[in-house]
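User: Some background: our group keeps a shared notebook of sequences we're curious about, and every so often someone picks one and asks for a predicted structure to add to the entry. Today it's my turn. The entry only has the sequence so far, pasted here. Could you supply the structure so I can complete it?
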Amino acid sequence: MAISPTADIGANLQRMRGMRGLTQEAAAEAAGLSRAAYRNLEAGLSEPRASPLVALAKALQVSPADLLLPAPPPPQARFRSKLRLKDRPRILHDVGRELEDYASLERLVDEARPYLFAGFIAPDDANRARAVAELVRERLELGDDPIFDISGLLEDKVGSKVLWLEIASDGFFGMSVAEDGSGPAIVVNSWDRISVERQIFTAAHELGHLLLHRDEFNPDEVAEDVDAEREADRFAAYLLMPEPRFTKEWQEVRGLSLFDAVMKIKRIFRVSYRTVLHRLDEQGLKDVWPRFMAQAKGRLGRALTRTDEPDPLSPAARGTAAPEPLRGREPFELVPSDFDPDRRMRLIRRALDERRMSLSRAAEILGLDLRKMRELHQSWA
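Assistant: Of course. Here's the predicted structure to add to the notebook entry:
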């Protein structure tokens, strides 16, 4: 799935405008264009003639050639969704560009990570999702401990790049890129309406695709394979909640109400309440979903929607009618910083410290304007 030259220009405009910290209106005014004309260019709906292209380059302090840079080839990604995403080509373009930048950064500081599961072939049996999850935990020497830093685990131990993109869609949670297609890489949608628990689960889910479905990475394939998605979900659940530790913790909360018990387990393993309920349902706990939903409605004062992630520690998640019975037992609240990847930031800091990279190039890779990049650089300990 190639992105058109017109879309290349639009993507480059968006990236370079971001580096300068300009709004669309400010960029349009600086180039002598109407806001509507500029918006169409950035959206890839029209192609500029020579004189507007030169004016845009001048306004963004780049050369016209920079605006014409071709997109990297689309990564060999597994990118499927129940919903049609009009931004699909642009998302693949952005992922390809970020992976290209990431790889160049690794080469610059000579710090590439080997992929721990290179060439791995999953067994072909019905229970392989759980078996492979247990194998991964064994290879990573995790024991039965909860995973407290999945991004660091994926980047530093597994050897997969982790990228996050903010896409305003609850129909796209993430995607994965094959090891032989500029990956391996895991991409997670960090839109603020998607809970951190869901983002963590997505990262584990996409690792499941890398290990279980390595022959299914085709960026042109858009239809969701329900069986493959369920298998990746099962892998993620057993990776994040190993069975022996889950059983032990569940025995210890049996004196609590179902709602409080599920919330306690959710906090221990840093997963969504839905992940806990799926495990309990799999183990045969009778009517676990309707019972939990009824208790949650009584506790929170309203019915849960599919996108809700109840968290008694957070007022926004609890609702104003909810009591705070878990505050003493559950002192740690999941926030976006619990998931943010940081290996790329470490590599950028090293490249800057060793004077192998300019601040402007660092800003370009991180998608920051120069002012914010300078502030970040000055804030480092």
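Suggested note for the entry: The first strand starts at residue 77 and ends at 78. Residues 88-109 form the longest helix (22 residues).
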